[in-house]
Amino acid sequence: KTTLMLLLCGRAPTSGSIERPGAVGLGQQGGTAVVMQHPESQVLGTRVADDVVWGLPAETHPHVDALLEEVGLGGMAERDTGGLSGGELQRLAVAAALARQPSMLIADEITTMVDQAGRDGLLEVLSGLTEHHRMALVNITHYDNEAQVADRTVNLSQSLDNMAMVGSAAAPVPGHAPAPHSSRPVLELRGVGHEYGAGTPWAKTALRDVSFTVNEGDGVLIHGGNGSGKSTLAWIMAGLTAPTTGECLVGGRPAHECVGDVAIAFQAARLQLMRSRVDLEVASAAGFSPNDTGRVIAALATVGLDGSLAGRRIDQLSGGQMRRVVIAGLLARWPQALILDEPLAGLDAPSQRGLLRLLTDLRINTGLTVIVISHDFAGLEELCPRTLHLDRGVLRSSGPTP
Known about the structure:
The protein is α/β, with parallel strands linked by helices. It has two domains: 2-156, Rossmann fold; 185-400, Rossmann fold. The protein has helices at 2-8, 48-52, 64-70, 86-98, 116-127, 129-132, 144-147, 160-165, 230-237, 269-272, 278-286, 293-302, 319-331, 349-366; strands at 32-35, 104-108, 136-140, 185-196, 204-215, 219-223, 245-250, 253-254, 262-265, 337-341, 370-374, 386-391, 394-400. It has a six-stranded mixed β-sheet, with helices on both faces. A four-stranded antiparallel β-sheet has the order 5-4-7-8, covered by helices on one side. It starts with a helix and ends with a strand.
């Protein structure tokens, strides 16, 4: 799907031809506009209204308020883009694309990184675009219900090459992790609260008085909608952000004093991969030499990837393979716990099933402590038997995963 999107955006095919009535005009007025899967990578303005017109010629004056109203962001022109939820960022990216009055708008998996309410809202926005604008809409998706509402569907699911990319490799190899089923606390949160911009007029409370304990070998799902505080909580547990109030302890020490003891795999795997090749990435993340081929191959085997991928370029991997490479590098450091922020986002059904099976086997066979941040319960009950539900920064409930 992504390759086809790139061809529509102007990349030359290695065979065949693409006929157009004019130039591609990528990003230009009246040309082709693309809204990407990860909105944070294309929202550039610090103020909502500024982002809508970012990069447009000075002589153009789009009706910003009307565009924001159309995508469901009415009255938010003066808001700081840093305070928007994932769904709101995607809506803003659509408004910025519409400001260019494109002849063709490509929406590349734009609903995969948001919760169900955000997904429904984005679909409602997309469904009316061709009625109100003189343009074609290409929606790239792996959700069948989204494909069913299109005027025409191009189905790539039977491509042999595509299916080969999502196949799982050999079963994970248990390593020398701590013994499973220990009752030793790995993470202890006591009255954790966090406020962004504390002491300023723009202060925003993300978490309030959150307390819970995660023991070694546990599988815990932290569930909640967009804006519930899930990602803030993940950053605090990983030691990347210190709580404003309360304390988060890893093995009895403040989490922000032992960064790396709790590993975190971010929602956008591609943005976490900093090296050009798989072996370089795994070695860099784990802290050993890329020349240590044996350790690289062992790390890949742990996440079910064949050692032949070691020399492959990162950009040649599928989304599921990228996520496994991230996890391989993190696990090779033997962290006390692994946090996965929306690990299934952006993956199709076969890739989701393969990743869940891999992580479940690792947790059960090696005693890996796993914490999953997600707005969805589907398929997570074996990996994460326990669920904590967050709502507007407050821990509302704790119990078995439905």
